[in-house]
C-alpha cells in the first residue's frame, strides 16, 4: 500500500487524489463485491457483525491507517523540502543583491574611466595643436 502511495505521489497526484484512488482498491480487495451485500445485510440484522466481516473491516481500517501514516510522512518530507527551498531562495536573493551592487559599482567605474579618457583626449588635442605651431612660436610662447 505504501509503495502504491509513493508511486502515485511520484506521478504528481495530490494527497486527496491518492486517497480517492486507493480507497476503492482497498475496499474491493478486502471485501469482494458479492460479500459487500452480505456484510451490509448482517450489519443491519445484527448489532455485532460476523467475526470474519469484522476482521475484514479491521484490515481495511488498518490499511487506511497505514495509508494515512505514509501520507503524513510524505507530507513531512515535502515540508522539509519546501523549507530547504526557502533557505536556498533566501541565499540566492542575497547573492543576486550582491551581484547587482557589483554591477552598479562597475557601471560607476566605467563612467569615471570614460570621464578620465575624455579629459586625456582633450590634453592630447591641446598638445597636438601646440605641435602644429612653428617651432619659433612655441619657443616664444606666441599663439
- Average of the residue pLDDT scores: 79
From the helix content, strand content and strand pairing, which structural class follows? mainly alpha
The tally of helices reads 5
Spatial shape? rod-shaped
End-to-end separation: 100 Å
The major sheet is characterized as: none
Strand content: under 5%
Assembly of the depicted chains: single chain
Tally of strands = 0
Q: Unreliable stretches, pLDDT < 50, 5 or more residues?
A: 25-31
Question: How many domains, as an integer?
Answer: 1
**Run of helices and strands:** HHHHH
Helix content: over 70%
Q: Which radius of gyration do the C-alpha atoms yield? A: 41 Å
Describe this structure in words.
The protein is mainly α. It has one domain. It is 88% helix and 0% strand. The protein is rod-shaped and about 115 Å long. It starts with a helix and ends with a helix. About 5% of the residues have low confidence.
Essential attributes:
single chain, 143 residues, 5 helices, mainly alpha, 88% helix, rod-shaped
How is this fold's topology laid out?
Blueprint: H1 2-10, H2 15-30, H3 33-45, H4 51-132, H5 135-140
Helix pairs in contact: 1-2, 2-4
Care to give the gist of this entry?
The protein is an all-alpha fold. The chain is built from 5 helices and no strands.
